[in-house]
Amino acid sequence: MADSDIQTYDYIVIGAGSAGSVVANRLSANPANRVLLLEAGPASHPWSRIPIGFAKLIDNPAANWCYSAEPEANTNGRKMPVPRGRLLGGSSSINGLVFVRGQARDFDTWAQMGNKGWTYTDVLPFFKSIESYEGGEDAYRGREGPLRVTDPDERGPLYDGLIEAAGQVGIPHNADYNGANQEGISLSQATIANGRRMSTAHCFLDPIRNRKNLTIETGAWSEALTLDGKRCTGVRYSIDGKPREARANREVVVSAGTINSPQLLELSGIGQPERLQSLGIEVRHALNGVGENLRDHYAPRTRWRIDAPGVTYNDKGSGLGLVKQALRYLFTNKGMLGIPAAPIRAFVRSRDGLEGPDVLLGWVPMLYEPGYKMSKIPGVTCYAHPMRPDSTGHIHITSADPRTPPAINFNFLSSSLDAEITIRAVRIARALMTAPAMAALQTSEIAPGAEKQSDEDILDWIKAVAETTYHPVGTCKMGPDPMAVVDEKLRVHGIEGLRVADASIMPTLTSGNTNAPSIMIGEKAANMVLNG
Ligand SMILES: Cc1cc2nc3c(=O)[nH]c(=O)nc-3n(C[C@H](O)[C@H](O)[C@H](O)COP(=O)(O)OP(=O)(O)OC[C@H]3O[C@@H](n4cnc5c(N)ncnc54)[C@H](O)[C@@H]3O)c2cc1C
User: Fold this and answer.
1) How distant, in Å, are the alpha carbons of 301, 461, 465 from that of 451?
2) Is 40 close to ligand 1, i.e. is its CB under 6 Å away?
3) pLDDT of residue 153
4) Would residue 369 count as lying in a domain?
5) With a threshold of 0.90, does the pTM exceed it?
6) How far apart are the first and last CA of the chain?
7) Protein residue with its CA nearest to atom 46 in ligand 1
8) Is 518 in the pocket of ligand 1 (CB under 6 A)?
């Protein structure tokens, strides 16, 4: 490519997802910084603004990379779907809209692993500056950030019944699980305002579209970083198959997410030398941790029939009910079309002696069949899983062609503790769903099924049905150890001018959903780029 065709910027951000949109916003706040933001997907999708659009986009290639994992023993050889957002806002534009920070100990653990500046006390200001939320206490919650976070206004017998049943099995109600203490059952806080999805595209990019120093290119697929020795100088990408190149005077920030960030590093010659050589890729920098340390939440969905009338959306949201819900949404922005994927959740302890909750239960207020299709049977779905699993897998390219999807191996339940806690999680879901307050709603178990009582039977069922809750992290791990990819400032070890800022840098999974911590990572990354 002729030099005259190559545009030069101060910063290039690759991937406009949860983290990348925030990075681009904050870096371009100073008009002196020229910033290029590259996004492989389109600018938007009509379903991404409406919360219920989650179910429409979960397997829709117009806005989703639609990856799938390799078959493995503990998924009974299934090719598990791995959805990832592929449009401005990234996965925040297609996700389940639930907003969970995690526990203070998650971040304290990262710091304890050698990452200075990542204790909860350190990251709390960044959690606060990204959000604007009306509840909770000022000490914990942000009031003026670009991201609107709200409590759902759905109430009714199902939510009342679950909260009462939780109390009957010793799980307290918690008004703000993103505050001082996560433990208990709560209505889910959501990235929804006025019935609309609050993606990072909407909250962090739409308001700054007129900045002259920010260039956003969509349909721009980054194929390799350009390197001059051990310095990253820019990126090669393509739009509509036409090759492009851009240079960064200062830094390139890779925010392509847990699947694509390690892929891009490997395509650029940064990774495990033997693997790269075997694919004919010139090794530019040996870094054995690239693509390793993959973690995700592997969650069985327990299924419950509820015969009391008017309790679930299978009742209230089908046939004429669906028309009513659509009209309600149209005129009030409320109802089934405007709620997060799992509007109520509980953070609980799997056993005595723990310092805090280690299991998440989340309820979808309807029974659904595979592919989020509403079942004809009225009921609810309750997923249950360990929040900080130990099992780790990996993601690696299998070809030098950027268009070939990388191979995703989760190694789910390779830690026996993960299997044990998942079984306990299913038993806790059972105890809660059969407590008197839920029994009063005429609740009966469909799956795993009352006949499955032994640990072995429950584990066999988990392996047959569990899926991820779409929270892959960790493949460009932050840390000081030889398998870490970035340091505590998110700089790629051994390469100048290159950082990774997205969910891939998490050394361990946070206790809950991963959008809020990914956005926090973007906010903190930008701060470190600008202020050292
Ligand atoms: C279906 C689903 C449901 C979820 N539900 C929830 C939930 O309810 N609550 C929650 O907290 N979390 C949820 N998550 C997880 C959460 O959304 C993610 O953890 C978070 O968005 C990850 O942010 P990120 O910045 O790491 O990556 P992403 O937001 O995925 O951003 C990566 C971006 O980079 C782009 N990109 C990738 N490769 C390239 C390339 N080569 N060139 C250019 N651009 C590229 C992608 O298209 C994408 O826009 C869900 C995720 C999914 C997929």
Assistant:
1) 17, 11, 16
2) yes
3) 82
4) yes
5) yes
6) 33
7) 86
8) yes
